[in-house]
Amino acid sequence: MDSLTKQNHLLEVRSTLYGAVSALFSDPESEKFAMLFTPKIQGCVLDACFQLEELENCEETSLSKSFQILMPKLDDEKKENIRNEFVNVFGHTLSKQIAPYALEHLKNSDVFFRTQKLADLNGFYKAFGMEVESIERADHISTQTEFLSFLLLKELLAMTNDLVEEKEVCEKAFSDFSQDHFLDWAKMFAENLADKVDGVFYSLAGKFLLTFIENEKKSLAQILLKDQECLKN
């Protein structure tokens, strides 16, 4: 596989996985979440896990294993259990440690600072033509991962059509958004879900998210290192 084909393939599978995360943490009553009960969709997500591991030469297969553990829970007969757990975990009395909102994980509680953060998020979405559903905040993990999935698809489309400038815009937006608004707080959120939630489904979902984010952080660090080396040369 040549480097361009590999790069395109990586964009596609990563977009699929960000989309899967978006669905996992959406409202269990939503159509987005319902798609996860479809065997075809589950197969696509698992295949994306395998492909990502293969493309990035991962020695361990923890990402695919974590999704395989989660798959039996994505069953129609367990829908009610997931709904109940969703209320228990993300209800009105939820701890900030497991809040699915980026702003709740910020140390700075200043109202103006938080307002600016929300404005920054909405600025990203508006710039790329994505409308946030009124039922979800701009800093909700489902919203953020849907946007990141969207950005990767736009970058793939730009590469496929040899649109160099558009590709670079999408690539930079993805990097900036990930570093400034997503990866750090989402990692804390995933760790807390995996370690501190009593339920079954969202603890496993947290472990899957954590494994994926750790992989993304490594990939982003490698990209930034390559960029720095290019600038030196």
Please give a structural write-up:
The chain has 233 residues and is mainly alpha-helical. It has a single domain, classed as Orthogonal Bundle (TorD-like). Helix content is 71%, strand content 0%. It contains 9 helices and no strands. It has helices at residues 3-24, 31-34, 39-55, 62-70, 79-90, 111-127, 141-160, 164-196, 201-232. The longest helix is centred in the C-terminal third of the chain and has 33 residues, at 164-196.
Which key terms come to mind for this protein?
9 helices; TorD-like; mainly alpha; 233 residues; 71% helix
Q: How do you describe this structure in short?
A:
By secondary structure, the chain is mainly alpha-helical. It has nine helices and no strands.
How much strand?
under 5%
Give the oligomeric state of the chains in this entry, treating copies of one chain as homo and distinct chains as hetero: single chain
How many domains? The number is 1
Class of secondary structure makeup: mainly alpha
CATH overall fold name: TorD-like
Low-confidence stretches: none
H and E string:
HHHHHHHHH
Could you give the topology of this structure?
Elements: H1 3-24, H2 31-34, H3 39-55, H4 62-70, H5 79-90, H6 111-127, H7 141-160, H8 164-196, H9 201-232
